[in-house]
Amino acid sequence: MRVLAAMSGGVDSAVAAARAVAAGYDVTGVHLALSRNPQTYRSGARGCCTIEDSRDARRAADVIGIPFYVWDMAERFHTDVIEDFVAEYAAGRTPNPCLRCNEKIKFEAVLDRAVALGFDAVVTGHHARLGADGLLRRSVDAAKDQSYVLAVLTRAQLDRSIFPLGELTKAQVRAEAAQRGLAVAEKPDSHDICFIADGDTRGFLAQRLGDEPGEIVDAETGEVLGEHSGAYAYTVGQRRGLGLERPAPDGRPRYVLSITPVSNTVTVGPAEALAVRTVHAERPVWTGSPPPAGPVECEVQLRAHGSPVPAVVTLAGDQFTAQLRSPAQGIAPGQAVVAYRQDSDGDIVLGSATITEAR
């Protein structure tokens, strides 16, 4: 079986490639060049798209003993991830660029090219499991689980995916890397958004969208409390950085409740106003089984590092609705809602959709 190992230059993808070789696959390594100018992306531990990462991936491939190539995906990444990121913020939503990168780059563009070149599957270092039944499950390492950002994958894409690290903790991955003589064994994990060089998301968006002054309004009274230079700098649930001079009459903090791009208004209010019972979403992908004909009792995760919430999920055409059994807070349109079901072997991903409204 010929497989393509996507090698980011980090420890996870290096160990995944090595494990694929040990499993008897015919493995070729590939590093994705995602930046038009790699020097503008983060360096060292702060990114996954640098020249340094490319070199680390090549060295790991040499140690493992597999062929290695670099694929230029910069234009596709710019269009499908960066431009999408900016457009989503401009529309008042809060996107997850890692999720979009998995969907559009690693498991669409890369997988399509791999299959066209005669490969049978793609191997990655994601912390998630694919069981013998083909179902996507959470990693055994809950702190590193990445099933949330993989829940956008279709059944056909999962059938051509291999995740060798799902049964390992991160500590075990590092120990195995050291045992195999991989220099990336102690390389720190990447963090934040790889294409924002200094970590300043607000500044990154301001450069592309410009200043768009608008009002910050109290949800309860309609009073104008202040001004902002761009609604894109805010997200639902945000407390800090609102720039309000006057505190609430009761002295409690205010939070962003909603963003309205048409009027360029940011609406703020008390924490209890963030409580959500119903989540509407679009573009559902159902991978755990055939799409359900009726309501499904399950758990839903509403952001990348959020806790699961018991819910009843229904699908109606292109619409996904989750009725939460207990309220959740700070749910932002643009994020994913991912449905899970538990069995004796852990959590199974049933499906996902993109949140359009939370009430």
TrEMBL record:
SUPFAM superfamilies: Adenine nucleotide alpha hydrolases-like
Keywords for the protein's UniProt record, in alphabetical order: ATP-binding, Cytoplasm, Disulfide bond, Nucleotide-binding, RNA-binding, Transferase, tRNA processing, tRNA-binding
Region annotated Interaction with tRNA, chain positions: 144-146
Reaction(s) catalysed (UniProt annotation): S-sulfanyl-L-cysteinyl-[protein] + uridine(34) in tRNA + AH2 + ATP = 2-thiouridine(34) in tRNA + L-cysteinyl-[protein] + A + AMP + diphosphate + H(+)
Enzyme Commission number: 2.8.1.13
Superkingdom to which the source organism belongs: Bacteria
Domain tRNA-specific 2-thiouridylase MnmA-like central: 203-269
Site (Interaction with tRNA): 126, 335
Name of the molecule in the record: tRNA-specific 2-thiouridylase MnmA
Gene assigned in the entry: mnmA
